[in-house]
């Protein structure tokens, strides 16, 4: 297979489909998404059989338990994919929305209106649900998409993609609007990163290695986050039971996602009052706690190395440190965070406001689990990823974030003096 020629063909097809999608009706796009959701549910046994092949492949590759969890589908997760597509279908169509309008003294009436970006390239690793999330969000926002899933999720992604095509066909939309690169060959990734004539933006979704490669080699603009180094700061004014509940969820609900807590910061006032209860909760749940000198006094913990702070474990491991108040926590997060998601647990409004105002992470939370760092939980139906840059998209990338805008200017024989 000539990868270069194949990717050029896919790119041309996507560019052509993008022109049609840009003017497709809201009803057609919503109908295609609903039909795709119906197809996924109807074909769930086929998808699960494909996923079993991927799980076997991942097991042979020696994937970690957290990565295998990312890869695994069951009926409940398929239901989540279906619900996500239906939620996206039900949202207002962002294309054509008037963002702002005003009239100049010259008489010109100016509107700033949402418009599709064009062709989106999505490169992802082991999570097969990204196939549906990315395909659905790009369709909703009027963009064509080229999907390049990871080798681990190849069979699952192919089965889900077939259902997305059913939705497109059922409502007369171009089949090339959602294309899945049909090879595990890594040369396809390189070709996408260089495809400036056909792809308008690349969105990588995966680990540090993948995202770093994309950011280093891409000639196409990139929406990305490099790592999800999420902190939970437990303030001296935190409610004990809230803190115990939220911290356990933030770390243990799913350790292999980017919203999983990777570092616990405990205010010395909280530690003096409640001792090592949070540390013991984590260990009782099976988490390896790598602590600073004070935390490491608790039996069963591991003394933290310097490199444990600022590390994305994506596993049942957490770094932990006692800090002297919110300013020390802020300083630590500024030094070791990745601008993804950071949470404060406190009942003190002034402390919470200081945390929110002094930090510049894409998502900041109060008294809530970092596992909520997800477009679906933000009401977007789904997300392609979490963007931690500051240009164009930031935080969960949903349909609205996949649009640009244009200016519509109306005069009445108006000329410039």
In short:
With 417 residues, the protein is of the alpha/beta class.
Describe the protein.
This protein is of the alpha/beta class and about 425 residues long. The protein has two domains: about 5-225 and about 395-410, Aldehyde Dehydrogenase, Chain A, domain 1 (3-Layer(aba) Sandwich); about 230-370, Aldehyde Dehydrogenase, Chain A, domain 2, CATH 3.40.309.10. The protein has helices at about 5-20, 25-40, 45-60, 65-70, 75-90, 130-140, 155-170, 185-195, 210-215, 240-250, 270-275, 275-285, 325-335, 350-360, and strands at about 100-105, 110-115, 120-125, 145-150, 180, 200-205, 230-235, 260-265, 290, 300-305, 315-325, 340-345, 365, 385, 395, 405-410. The strands form four sheets. The chain has a seven-stranded parallel β-sheet, sandwiched between helices. Strands 5-4-3-6 form a four-stranded parallel β-sheet, sandwiched between helices. Strand 4, helix 7 (about 155-170) and strand 5 (about 180) form a beta-alpha-beta unit. Helix 10 runs parallel beside helix 12 (about 275-285). The chain is globular, with a radius of gyration of 23 Å. The model has no long low-confidence stretch (mean pLDDT about 95).
The radius of gyration computed from the alpha-carbon positions, rounded to a whole number of angstroms, is 23 Å
Q: Summarize model confidence as the mean pLDDT.
A: 94
Which geometry do the CA atoms define? Answer: globular
CATH architecture descriptor of the largest domain: 3-Layer(aba) Sandwich
Q: Please, how many helices? A: 14
Distance between the first and last residues' Cα: 60 Å
Low-confidence stretches: none
| Overall number of strands | 16
CATH homologous superfamily annotation of the largest domain: Aldehyde Dehydrogenase, Chain A, domain 1
Percent range for β-strand residues: 15-25%
CATH class category label of the largest domain: Alpha Beta
* Tally of individual domains: 2
Give the ordered list of helices and strands.
HHHHHEEEHEHEHEHEHEHHEEEHEHEEEE
Secondary structure class reads: alpha/beta
